Amino acid sequence: MGWLNAIVQGLLLGGLYALFATGLSLMFGVMRIVNLAHGDLAVVASFLALALVSGTGLPLWVVMVVTVPLFALLGYLTQRVLLQRSLGAGPLATLLVTFGLSIVLQNILLEVFSADTRTLDGGSFATASFHLTDSTSVGYLSLTTFLLACAALAGIQVFLSRTGLGRMLRASADDRETASLMGADSRHVYGIATAIAFATVALAGLMFAMRSSFDPSIGPSRLIFAFEAVVIGGLGSLWGTLLGGMVLGVAQSLSAQVDPALTLLAGHLIFLAVLAFRPQGLLAGRAA
Amino acid sequence: MRDIPTGGLGRRSFLSGAAALGGASLVSACGGLKGTGGSSSDVLKIGYVSPQTGPLAGFATADNFVVKQIQQAVRGGFTAGGVKRRIEIVVKDTQSNPNRATEVTRQLINSDKVDLIVGSSTPDTTNPVADQCEANGIPNVTTIAPWEAWFHGRGGKPGEGFKYTTLFFFGMQEFADCFFPMWDRADVSSKNVAALWPNDTDANAFRQGLGPMMKKSGYTPVDGGAYQNGATDFTAQIATFKESGADLFTCTPIPPDFQTFWKQARQQGFKPKLATVAKVMLFPSEAEALGGLAANIATDFWWSPAHPYKSVLDGKSAKQLADDFAAETGKQWTQALGSVYSLFEIAIQAFKEASDPKDRDEVAAKLRGMKIRCMSGDLDFTAGPQPGIALQHPVGGQWRKGERFPWDVVIVDNSANKAVPIGGDLLPTNA
């Protein structure tokens, strides 16, 4: 029964990883930007929500509903003001910009919020669960996170395949010059992509903050799982990201059953194996 | 890096002054500048190294406040070696990085020319700082690191110790003395103790040290396995603990991991009757972060406002120090407040006892032979498990809902140190 429990928990954890990785996948797929500040942005979102909760006294779910679009707006601005300027200077420049952003964000957070460990208090929702079997209990929070991840991915998928803007986005991802010739304003399109990426990373950050805790320096350690989920699933494939997250989550929880010392190692090994034997990822896709 | 020049000349203004003097050598510039503030031998310089930024920054919350307090306490100067002296404190930040700790300690020794170095918080700070001081012959005292990690981690020779470096804190035996009495009093049906010990220096020390002590006292550790820090899922450990039927729980994870574990344990139905944790829940901010789940988690307290201790400098009580801290910063006290305060008490005491406070060998000898009743209680550096180590005896406290702040500590077990008054009953963590 322990194994069933491990698989269930691993799958749910995978949902969180996937939600986390979506933005990374999207930004890479569309703009070829490897956003090293991704983890820190999630932490920023958590702190923003924390400040809103303590500042306004609004319930957490309202704050979440506010934070996510706010972050999307922030994403659009970041792209137009900061990242767009570095795009012309080659991939290394954007890498350095996001790396710098990561350090700047960490230190600003430390200065403003101090190094204290915080969480978003989800109340009983964060710890309540229902029993699937005697030994397997499913937390409402984990399940919600998983469903949110699926919903977010499905939403982005529909947006990309059914809307005009989505088509422009895919066109720009495929060939920026030609798309521009056809009237797609690549800067606006990139802004939209970053906005979506920021919205998902905010959502992931908030779920992570409720599940676990956060402090200004924890961002980079979260980034690694997102990276692995993206690579395992296949760069640029949205559903691949979900699959990658779940593979990573299950690999970690199953290996923990054997020996907890193997938990992270197993995830990294799967990641390496995919890189070595199937570098295009489990679901190689080009759907941005 | 943050330089906090305090009193007299800061390093930066000093350097810019040195630069302004053009071709003048650093040494003569030094003499020339110091001449403005009285004879240089009147000023005793203390270097302070701590992790003010980075993951360990929680330990350093009270640093600025303590430095100010110390300067206020000795603002009139004090007599050492027959001459009226005043102190200057140079603060350095390790950024929670041991390499950086080495570097800033070297700066203190070579550029700032300090007379004594104090340092605090975790072996990542204390060990590199102490190593540099030992190598350069600078008297040094550090705290908040288990003495085993400080002593054995630096290759200390049993029975001999170090010449220049000293430490006050506690070790594995004191953890046992603090935790076991609480376990004995807890109403549990199983003597199994669930132990969440990751694979790092601290936890491995517990695995090898506390594990056997538990067995000797009739408890069976149920090791959850040596997982890697930064884990996001504890399903396997929780399953192991549930299976063992353990009613007692202990751990030494890193703080973010504990938050994750404790929430997940509740989610998956592992509810130990008594949790006595180490390394985490040391600070009110952690209790606040856990919210309602923090209630009645017990941990070790080597300092609290309830401790009946007084400053050797101005007689300020522990409670007063905590209150002043709250009034000035708006923050709740932390255990590091008392420890960092004592670092300076001890440093100043060593200066006072020495016939020549500028004589490093003599000051170091005074540190090694120090017996002091200070903010951290009675410290005897001659009676420790190894020379140059003074032991503290932490007592058991539980987190409860507070009045002034959301969470406060109630001392519930003083078996290890009867001087500390009991503040309330030992209550089950999960009834």
From TrEMBL, chain A:
GO cellular component: plasma membrane
Assigned keywords, A-Z: Amino-acid transport, Cell membrane, Membrane, Transmembrane, Transmembrane helix, Transport
CDD domains, A to Z: TM_PBP1_LivH_like
Compartments, as annotated in UniProt: Cell membrane
InterPro entries reported in the protein's UniProt record: ABC_transp_permease, BCAA_transport_permease
Family classification: Belongs to the binding-protein-dependent transport system permease family. LivHM subfamily.
Full protein name: Branched-chain amino acid ABC transporter permease
Protein's organism: Spongiactinospora gelatinilytica
